[in-house]
Design a protein that fits this description.
Helix content: 40-55%
Order of helices and strands: HEHHEHEHEHEHEHHEHHHHEHH
Oligomer: single chain
Strand order of the largest sheet: 1-2-3-4-5-6-7-8
Shape: globular
CATH superfamily: NADP-dependent oxidoreductase domain
CATH architecture: Alpha-Beta Barrel
CATH topology: TIM Barrel
Structural class: alpha/beta
């Protein structure tokens, strides 16, 4: 592994990212324009990858369905040996033996790699069966770390027991978390992760653009139209974020990123352009005080804005 990546490991060799680049918005022109409001060419995304390596956050998180299936191959074309790839297996329907391995082989073809640095079980379906296949791949040296995503505390504990029996560490939990949705903190999941030395990765840190104040000339997209009314209710929160941001030379979206990292979690933020990567790196290099965190949380709660958050994928979890 590249020397710079070695420096991003703890004393016991565990990867410790400051932040992660999300690739859910990486896709073709049609997807970019319709869903995200703009299309970014691969040469621009390549510069973003190079920037991520330069500023010390060469971590890229993806999944088979990102960018309507276009995201993973782009990651494979753009992300070299000096980057860390985080990928997922999403179990849907009834479990079939060998399904994880079959999907994993397809992932490797997308990534043009012989192994994946971090592999997540994307939903808590057939937990023991799916994790058993991932454990086999881990023992073969084809998966560097195993994590779980969109799991509640009970399911995380179950996953850890399964992995502990196999002598394999649970690397991390990747769940929805932001200034507007702190359920996993209130439920005790994040404290459980800290107590057990398990990394907590937070996705939707900017809530699909809701924690980005609207611009007069911004282009509409499906995501922005969906949340337009709720964004208008967030102006008092934007004001608080702006005031705190001035003290740290951060923009409002960067305050949302800095908030997550200041809580001890790893923010995953979608970046397609170099300046977005630089802003993410700058955000996680700052640290908010306990008082600033309290002010932000109070302001967020006062808006009364509710979102489809922590449980948004429970519909896909098979009932036992």
């Amino acid at each position: 592994m590249d020397g710079a990546l070695r420096e991003m490991r703890s004393e016991d060799g565990v990867l410790v990212p400051k932040a992660v680049i999300g690739t859910n918005a990486w896709g073709d022109a049609l997807y970019g324009k319709m869903v995200r409001g703009s299309y970014v060419t691969e040469d621009v995304m390549l510069e973003a990858v190079k920037t991520a390596v330069r500023v010390g956050i060469p971590f890229f998180d993806t999944a088979r369905d990102y960018g309507l299936g276009k995201g993973q191959p782009i990651v494979g074309r753009l992300c070299g040996d000096d980057t860390v790839v985080s990928a997922k297996y999403t179990p849907m329907g009834k479990y079939k033996q060998g399904q994880v391995r079959a999907s994993f082989e397809k992932d490797l073809l997308d990534f043009q790699r012989s192994c994946v640095d971090i592999y997540w079980l994307h939903l808590p379906n057939a937990i023991e069966e799916n994790l058993s296949e991932m454990i086999d791949l881990y023992r073969e040296g084809r998966i560097g770390n195993i994590g779980v995503s969109n799991f509640n505390l009970k399911e995380c504990r179950q996953a850890k027991v399964i992995l502990d029996k196999a002598g394999v560490p649970l690397y991390g939990v990747q769940n929805h978390y932001s200034l507007l949705d702190r359920k996993w903190e209130k439920d005790g999941l994040t404290s459980w992760c800290k107590e057990n030395g398990i990394s907590f990765w937070a996705w939707a840190v900017l809530e699909e653009g809701m924690l980005v104040p609207p611009k007069k000339d911004e282009k509409n997209s499906i995501m922005k139209l969906m949340f337009a009314r709720k964004r208008r209710k967030l102006y008092p929160l934007y004001k608080t974020m702006q005031e705190i941001g001035r003290k740290h030379r951060l923009k409002i979206p960067q305050v949302a990123m800095c908030y997550v990292s200041s809580k001890g979690f790893v923010p995953i933020c979608g970046c397609r352009k170099p300046y977005q990567v630089e802003e993410l790196a700058a955000a996680v290099s700052e640290k908010l005080s306990d008082e600033e965190i309290r002010l932000l949380e109070d302001a967020a709660d006062a808006t009364g804005v509710k979102i489809l958050g922590a449980d948004m994928f429970r519909f896909a979890v098979k009932k036992k």
